[in-house]
Amino acid sequence: MSVRDVRTVLMAGGKGSRLRPFTSVFPKPLMPIGDVPIMDIVIRQLRHFGCEEITIATGYLAELVFAYLGDGSQYGMKVKFVREKEPLGTIGALSLIPSEDAKSYLVLNGDVLTTIDYGNFVRQHLATGAAASVATYRRPTSVDKGVVSIDSDGRIREIVEKPTFYNWVAMGIYVLSPSVLHFIEPGVPLDAPDLIRTLIKNDMPVHSYMFDGYWLDIGLPRDYEQALEEFSQHRTALLHESP
Fold this sequence. Notes:
- By secondary structure, this protein is an alpha/beta fold.
- The chain has 5 helices and 13 strands.
- Strand 4 (53-58), helix 2 and strand 5 form a beta-alpha-beta unit.
- The model has no long low-confidence stretch (mean pLDDT 90).
């Protein structure tokens, strides 16, 4: 089993409002990291892991995405497009894709830099029989003050100076079984966390794929600046280039 055994969808329709003014000119997935657009990095990775066809869900500045990717022949793969007339959230655009078979879906946000092994992720999902699998990352959050533990009677039990807490966060990468598609209504905006909550509420199994490599969600200007600073360090792993 590999990425070729699922239908791969890249979500690239958002306006990237939090990254303005950068995204006034480019849709976020086409913003350059070094000399390579984010989307180019992701597509090259998918091709490395066996993807032969990808569907791009577009919206904002879609013509630039069409012009850049064409039919996908420069990657040795087939590229298809669907276009949102109105924003459909991070998962709602799946309703625009004709369901031609019983394959699961590998769904990715268009603004994620990571060295995740997409093949292993897909294989784990198919092996578990989960309705959905969520790629997760253990992210540190630091507090720059002393954190105080207080009893119900107001007595301080402990104070920890500038602690770091760790939480598992969703990476914006999912594998979804065909059984979840009927929860995605045509034309109705839907974000991935809402879909996952619905599946859990309906007692459908949702699994985590816990990843400990490189991951960066480029949602804010500081994230973009970090990506620019770190790209040369991680370029070989991200693009699967020979050292």
